[in-house]
Design a protein that fits this description.
- With 247 residues, this protein is an alpha+beta fold.
- The chain is 39% helix and 27% strand.
- The protein has an eight-stranded antiparallel beta barrel, surrounded by four helices.
- β2 and β3 form a beta hairpin.
- The longest helix is centred in the first third of the chain and has 24 residues.
């Protein structure tokens, strides 16, 4: 009886050890993004074809959220987010199927220009104040490019920013690029109440809130460290297009 009891205990113990690993392997924190730019005289045809494609072929882990890029250097383009998903599911995705590929290549790309971009990003929960799936229709994305070797220092800066964002009620999701060009953090400020959140006076200035959280003079220190470790950054506004997205 003791031998059986020891076996049962050991089995349960090993299963408990595996639970964290199982949770990690099933964590859907990966998104893939594509930016496409339709020909100016084929906009309506493109949108119809894109809506048909996303709603017919993209469900589950390959679900699409489509945004119109309203400002910044890519204004006029469309930002397509697939996921969230796991790296394991991306392994199995492939090209989905032949019918999917034919529809994209023959029905959608015929309306596109040659300009495009594609990449992967990972949602960073420890730097965010909003869950990965807690979306909004209006988003301001700030692209932050660390200097070589400075990604950790920039992440530390964002950890301090998170405390200030949380203090003033800002809903911000932070992503880090993965295998997709230069090191980059994408800071997605989700305007849950719309663009009125950008109005002067809607919230206290970030510098004021930051110093309330981290102490007098801390905002100047933040600026000095940012200048030392951030190579570049720029922002844009994205508006969600439910009519072009997966259902």
């Amino acid at each position: 009886m003791k031998k059986n009891a020891d076996f049962s205990f050991n089995t349960i113990f090993l299963l408990l050890l595996l639970i964290p690993l199982m949770g990690i392997s099933q964590n859907k924190n990966v998104i893939s993004t594509s930016r496409v730019f339709p020909k100016v005289d084929k906009l309506l045809e493109f949108e119809k074809a894109l809506a048909n494609h996303s709603q017919k072929y993209h469900t589950g882990d390959t679900k699409w959220r489509v945004f119109q890029i309203e400002s910044g250097p890519d204004a006029g383009g469309y930002h397509i987010v697939e996921g969230p998903k796991t790296w394991e599911s991306e392994d199995k995705r492939g090209d989905i199927n032949v019918t999917h590929n034919n529809d994209w290549n023959k029905s959608v790309t015929i309306y596109l220009t040659d300009k495009s971009s594609h990449g992967y990003s990972v949602y960073i929960d420890s730097l965010s104040t909003v869950a990965i799936g807690d979306y909004s229709d209006k988003v301001q994305v700030t692209h932050v490019y660390p200097k070589m070797g400075s990604s950790y220092r920039v992440a530390t800066l964002m950890k301090n920013l998170k405390a200030a964002w949380a203090a003033d009620g800002s809903t911000v999701a932070v992503y880090e690029s993965n295998g997709s060009g230069n090191a980059q953090f994408a800071v997605a400020r989700r305007y849950k109440q719309g663009l009125k959140e950008k109005e002067v006076g809607f919230r206290k200035p970030l510098a004021e809130t930051y110093e309330k959280v981290h102490g007098q003079g801390s905002w100047a220190i933040y600026g000095d460290i940012a200048k030392e470790h951030i190579n570049d950054q720029w922002s844009e506004l994205l508006f969600y297009r439910a009519d072009l997205s997966s259902k």
